[in-house]
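Q: Given only this backbone (220 positions), what sequence would you predict?
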């Protein structure tokens, strides 16, 4: 099981978390860099140093880009991707708040193609729910669940079309997981057809301010 790691805390605020992440880089699918709900207005030296250390440790880096559920212009998104690349040396991008409906699929496909032309790879789409089936052919990785552990346990359902694709194309991001149940969350994601996951114990408003205990290596 690969781990997608969104760590949305400044390196100066929690240097220990970033150090632990760097030492566990080989257990990650990728690390999402999010200096300021995107790349920000200028390079942040602390994130630059963290990005360099993660790359040296073998991590793949994704720049966080808010897609605004289709409301942001492709030009603004491309600008964010380029700044992530130039300032932090990101490999790919994490397109958060992606569309999920069939009517928006063509526009999303064009957006991902434009991002790929900038050299971004892999491209991760995060609608946070199971989108229309065609989205699975657009992204390298599709986040089909983002939500609380209680919802994941009680209300998750897996559409039949997902079985036509390998687990490595799907990711479940689950927050509010009791620490003792993190290994169970990893196993549950695997059983539900997701080859990538990111279980964390944090709660809103920023559940991604801490690392996943799954990085400790107790669950494979």
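A: Predicted residues:
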């Amino acid at each position: 099981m690969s781990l997608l790691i969104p760590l949305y805390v400044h390196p100066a605020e929690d240097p220990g978390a970033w150090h632990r992440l760097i030492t566990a880089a080989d257990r990650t699918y990728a690390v999402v860099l999010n200096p300021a709900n995107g790349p920000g207005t200028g390079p942040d030296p602390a994130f630059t140093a963290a990005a360099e250390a993660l790359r040296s440790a073998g991590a793949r880096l994704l720049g966080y880009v808010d897609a605004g559920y289709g409301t942001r212009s492709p030009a603004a998104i491309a600008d964010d991707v380029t700044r992530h690349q130039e300032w932090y040396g990101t490999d790919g991008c994490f397109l958060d708040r992606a569309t999920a409906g069939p009517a928006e699929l063509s526009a999303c496909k064009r957006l991902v193609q434009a991002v790929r032309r900038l050299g971004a790879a892999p491209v991760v789409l995060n609608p946070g729910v199971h989108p229309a089936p065609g989205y699975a052919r657009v992204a390298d990785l599709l986040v089909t669940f983002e939500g609380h552990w209680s919802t994941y346990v009680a209300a998750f359902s897996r559409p039949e079309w997902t079985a036509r694709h390998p687990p490595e194309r799907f990711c479940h991001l689950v927050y509010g997981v009791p620490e003792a149940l993190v290994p169970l969350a990893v196993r549950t994601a695997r059983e539900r057809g997701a080859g990538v996951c990111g279980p964390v114990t944090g709660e809103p408003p920023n559940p991604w301010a801490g690392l996943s205990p799954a990085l400790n290596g107790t669950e494979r």
